[in-house]
Amino acid sequence: MKKIQIVIDTNIFISALRNDTGASFYLLSLVGKNEFETNISVPLIMEYESVALRFLNQINLKVSDLNDILDYVCFSSNRHKINYLWRPFLKDPKDDLVLELAVKARSQYIITFNKKDFKNISKFGITAVTPWEFLKERGLL
User: Fold this and answer.
1) Residue 95, domain extent
2) CATH of the domain at 114
3) What is the distance between the alpha carbons of residues 141 and 136, in angstroms, rounded to a whole number?
4) Sequence-ordered alpha helix ranges (H) in the chain
5) Measured between alpha carbons, how far is 58 from 129 in angstroms, rounded to an integer?
6) How many folded domains does the chain comprise?
7) C-beta of residue 6 within 8 angstroms of C-beta of residue 134
8) CA–CA gap between residue 13 and residue 21 (Å, rounded)
9) Does the pLDDT of residue 44 top 80, yes or no?
């Protein structure tokens, strides 16, 4: 049985680092545990790192801790090189990089708090859902 493919938006990654009791943290804790497969690209990992470094003083982590988390996400995820750019499709170029990865990875879901930013992605066979919605739908809560 083929596993569900997902892409985790940066806002979910940051939320998981900031709050260890929410759905975002639980979702991130399941990365690499065979419940689903996460997909990453160099631009997305760089975005995770860039934003996390801006919030480092608020998330009670050292740079080395953040690097360990990023290394684990990279190790546990399917890595994709994005060779095409058909932007812009969405209003925000940062959202386009998430969508491009989801299309390349044939992901069924983009996990995000900003579902409104991913309008019309159903034409790619992708649904934008919150972490809670995804976890509940998959029976992981």
Assistant:
1) 5-137
2) 3.40.50.1010
3) 5
4) 10-18, 23-29, 42-54, 63-76, 93-104, 131-137
5) 26
6) 1
7) yes
8) 13
9) yes
Write out the two tokens for 132.
């809670």
Give exposure, 50-82, as e/b (b: 16+ Cβ within 10 Å): eebeeeeeebebeeeebeebbeebeeebbebee
By three-state DSSP, how is residue 78 classified? strand
Q: 7 - beta bridge partners? A: 110
Q: Across residues 72-85, what is the average pLDDT?
A: 89
Tokens of 67: 């690097």
Residue range 88-132, pLDDT digits in tens: 666 666 788 899 999 999 999 999 999 999 988 999 999 999 999
Q: What pLDDT band is residue 138 in, cutting at 50, 70 and 90?
A: very high
Q: Is the pLDDT of residue 46 over 70?
A: yes
Burial of 27 from C-beta contacts in 10 A (0-12 / 13-18 / 19+) = buried
Span 73-83, mean pLDDT? Answer: 93
